[in-house]
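This follows on from our talk about sequence and fold. Please put the record directly below this note.
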Amino acid sequence: MESVFKKLSFTSATLILLLLTSIFVVLFIYAKPAIDEFGLKFLTDPRWGVTVQVDTPKVDKKNVKEVKTEQPIVTNDDNLGSDDVDAQLGLGDNDNVDNAIDASSDEDDESSANTKEVYGGLVPIVGTIFSTIIAMLFAVPIAMGIAIFLSEIAPPLLAKPVGIAIELLAAIPSIIYGIWGLFYFGPLVSEYIGGQSVSLLVAGLVLGVMIIPFMASLTRDSMNTTPAVLKESAYAMGATKFEVIKDVIFPYAKSGIIGSIILALGRALGETMAVAFVIGGVFTFPKVITDPTVSIPVVLANSFAESSGMSMAALFYLAVVLFVFSFVIISFAKFYFLRNKK
């Protein structure tokens, strides 16, 4: 039984690693055309779907004419005259010859300048980063305050219903937050702060509201794991409630608190529907935080249905960027802040 349990545990862990690897491999394969075409310039190019001209070598007209005149005349009729031969070559009269040369010249001019579409991910990358920063700056202090209140200050009769309400907020679908932000919260922010009702600021604040319940619930649970004897000892030595929270509870629950922040950060980076309602969805850099812009998840959600070819590959390239960016940020936060975990 013990060996079966170990094998099942090992299989479960291996499946998670295989799943993570397979997701990255699939994204990379579909993004390969865009990676080959744009390279790392994709990360610094603000253009998306912009048509640009690409010069191509001009065709040598002299060589083309020589090739045309060297074509053999195929005929099985000995009675064909010179006019018939000219008709086979398309050289019936001088006007036709001139028209043919003009058409060839126009085709050469058109072939000398080709066009292609250029895709760059800088605008959605910047929108994702700044909307996440705004969300975390807004949510972290509020979530910490809620957790402290529920675990150390509120009486049990109040802490329990408030805690349930916080957990229910975490269960609300993201599209509900998006509708609320679009029709109520966005206009409210625009009225009192200025700017447009769909903007980078509104998107960041809506994201912050969404991640507060996750962070507050996990932080509260982590703080509740602090042994009562540690807190009572601190109170017996004359520590105030603030000092107990700061010097006893927070250090003991540090790992859980940081873990809650990391999980909230991961959700903020990848949130789609709520942000799609309130960020604006335009490929422009916001001059101020009250201007509309776009983020990577919003681009992916809005553009996949109508994309093909290189535009589809560019979307997969954006997905790879988001995957790697989220993985690096969360891994760095986890290993840096939790490296001294005991």
Remarks:
- DSSP finds 14 helices and two strands in the chain.
- Residues 2-38 form the longest helix (37 residues).
